């Protein structure tokens, strides 16, 4: 390895560290169970459904992605992709997510489950 | 410039920008909110402004207005009580088929509006459904499925064409004995609008009134962007089926999941089609969006009773009126003009085709 | 470096063939990380060789062709995975070409690491555009980190190749 190579290596490590801190620090600072959170599910960029995540509430539903039907499971304040038709199944291996900012992405199915903090709704007409 | 000077200059600029951003935040930011139980539901009013006293007074006046309208429109007051004396609706009902009753300007205004939409909807909206509602028993503890001939008989006492309004004398007459007014689909919205105008008159610029699901917003929300109003999923009470971005307008919903009962394996809800005497069956939920809350209240019922295609056409015809609906078989449809202010979340249970 | 017509075309075709094979094979190697888009990057070797011998244009051609053919064979042609692979290939080729041709201080290890990082960042950006969400950016730190070992591995292979370059490329460059 040349000197430039080593500099580059350190540079990438630093970039990874900095971006990691910026993106992941929230997971450790946010006291679990405090703020209202919700899971936002989008398919091919379009809003599919937003689920309020409350402890004690269990549910699951089917999402039609680009490759077929996937199943999303909600268990209290966490959510995961339970079943998916994609061949590599990376989204399944991710397991449960529970902090705002975390997401499960199924690239071939174009499905994104993302946890956002706080209920952004001002009111509900009913 | 030397390197150090450059760094200091950059920091100063950043501080300046941060300072300006902070300044922008404060100001008309103070929030005051209050809840009251009236018209059989919880009414929440949230206002924003500088001075807490002004906010408190404005909200108090707004509630007073709503109470006043509630009294005028109260159809359930018992004879001999003070409520009965102040209820225009009770007096009109009592003197049905007998003689005209002099009423408050707001009562007349509500009825004029109601008759207008009776005509526009070709009878799908009718405030004289009182006898029908009584027959089904929705107002009381024992709602039940009436026999067809009972419904036919009740229908004889229903018909807004027999509601006579005299705007000069400010009188109201129900022509036939046995006729009865029910302002349940008008009063809440009308009262909400009155409340909002009271807030506006007192200089409030940002407010949200939630009268049991009837939403009326004034201006923008505290972050200077449109208020985000969710539309409740008609089958899953914890979820929403769409989000509306609204400014200075009303959103009122009529749906099949409020009051109702089950008989013979079928579910009957309380929004009756005045033409047939049976619950309207086209939709699960309809949300009307228009500036005036009283009109929104009426329109939500009109659109709920009409077939979806007719409802959408009627909305197009009327200026400044839009709607969103979920049909009985789960299809989500809405006015095309809503597109930029609407985010539909069909979920797994409903179908939504953006192109239609 | 020569641009002799027939030899160049023949060698480039060989590179494309090898690149395609590598693309398909590494697509089948399961990486234990639950992050989409982490690959060994073996196919980049042929891209680097093409750039090294013949410059950016030919390098880009090889990269695009191997993604195209590799996806056709792998059955993901025109699927989202294909588009991401394409963006990744383009961005990594650009990065590697710039470093290879404009600088002299990097060895193949540095070039490959830069290529891996360029590939991952390009893919992330494409994914965030495709899915219209910034959620994918949460994989950035991991992907950056992953570029180091994969880059070092392929870079090491390339370094070894180039040690014997006078024999290997004798007829082609």
Helix and strand topology:
The complex is a heterotrimer of chains A (126), B (356) and C (173).
Chain A: H1 3-29, E1 37-43, E2 46-53, E3 58-65, E4 68-75, E5 78-83, H2 90-93, E6 103-106, E7 111-117, E8 123-125
Antiparallel strand pairs in A: 1-2, 1-7, 3-4, 4-5, 6-7
Chain B: H1 3-25, E1 30-38, E2 41-49, H2 52-73, H3 82-86, H4 88-94, E3 101-102, H5 105-120, H6 130-136, H7 148-155, E4 163-166, E5 171-174, H8 187-201, E6 206-211, E7 214-218, E8 227-232, E9 240-246, E10 250-255, E11 260-263, E12 266-269, E13 283-290, H9 293-305, H10 308-317, E14 322-327, E15 331-334, E16 342-344, E17 351-352
Parallel strand pairs in B: 15-17
Antiparallel strand pairs in B: 1-2, 2-6, 3-5, 4-5, 6-7, 7-10, 8-9, 9-16, 10-13, 11-12, 13-14, 14-15
Chain C: H1 5-28, H2 44-54, H3 56-74, H4 80-102, H5 108-130, H6 140-163, H7 165-168
Helix pairs in contact in C: 1-2, 1-3, 2-3, 2-4, 2-6, 3-4, 4-5, 5-6
Can you walk through the features of this model?
The complex is a heterotrimer of chains A (126), B (356) and C (173). Chain A is of the alpha+beta class and 126 residues long. Chain A contains 2 helices and 8 strands, in the order H-E-E-E-E-E-H-E-E-E. Helix content of chain A is 25%, strand content 40%. Chain A has a 4-stranded antiparallel beta sheet. The longest helix of chain A is centred in the first third of the chain and has 27 residues, at 3-29. Chain A is globular and about 65 Å long. In chain B, the strands form 4 sheets. A 9-stranded mixed beta sheet of chain B has the order 1-2-6-7-10-13-14-15-17. Chain B has a 3-stranded antiparallel beta sheet with strand order 3-5-4, covered by helices on one side. Chain B contains 10 helices and 17 strands. In chain B, a hairpin with a 4-residue loop joins strand 4 and strand 5 (171-174). Chain C has one domain (4-168): Arp2/3 complex 21 kDa subunit ARPC3 (Orthogonal Bundle). Chain C starts with a helix and ends in a 5-residue tail after the last helix. Chains in contact: A-B, A-C. The interface between A and C is large, with 36 and 37 residues.
